[in-house]
Amino acid sequence: MYGVVIDAISPYIKNKPTVQVRIIDPSLNLKAAGLTGGFAATYASCQVFANESNKLPLVLYVGDIIRFNKVNVAVYRD
Question: The whole model's pTM is what?
Answer without folding.
Answer: 0.69
